UniProtKB/TrEMBL annotation:
<dbReference type="GO" id="GO:0016857">
    <property type="term" value="F:racemase and epimerase activity, acting on carbohydrates and derivatives"/>
</dbReference>
<dbReference type="GO" id="GO:0019301">
    <property type="term" value="P:rhamnose catabolic process"/>
</dbReference>
<dbReference type="InterPro" id="IPR008000">
    <property type="entry name" value="Rham/fucose_mutarotase"/>
</dbReference>
<protein>
    <submittedName>
        <fullName>L-rhamnose mutarotase</fullName>
    </submittedName>
</protein>
<dbReference type="InterPro" id="IPR011008">
    <property type="entry name" value="Dimeric_a/b-barrel"/>
</dbReference>
<dbReference type="Pfam" id="PF05336">
    <property type="entry name" value="rhaM"/>
</dbReference>
């Protein structure tokens, strides 16, 4: 499984509503994410709007494509687009340290 971390920027004036929308995500969206291969998916939101996402997946490109092919994702993205600065463009971060990997290399 690949560990993926990405960032987005939520508009500061939309933070409260963004949090509310994610408190109860549509059941069909949850199922679509699971079925598309998004595992252990979490979002973290800082008070200045920095959004950090984390997930495990076999193939991030394929998982994104699988979601993009669903009607529920198209509806969700249309509703969520106004929340983001510079659109919903994931900036994927490079993993530079992993404790478990380095401990495993010592064994």
């Amino acid at each position: 499984m690949r560990r993926v971390c990405f960032t987005l920027q939520v508009k500061p004036d939309r933070l409260d509503e963004y949090r509310r929308r994610h408190a109860h995500v549509w059941p069909d969206m949850l199922a679509a994410l699971r079925d598309a291969g998004w595992h252990d998916y979490s979002l973290f939101l800082r008070d200045d709007g920095l959004l950090v996402g984390y997930l495990l997946t076999e193939d991030f490109t394929a998982a994104q494509a699988a979601m993009a092919a669903t009607d529920v994702d198209r509806r969700w993205q249309a509703e969520m687009a106004p929340f983001f600065i510079n659109g919903r463009h994931f900036v994927v971060l490079d993993e530079v340290f992993n404790l478990e990997h380095q401990l495993g290399a010592l064994r």
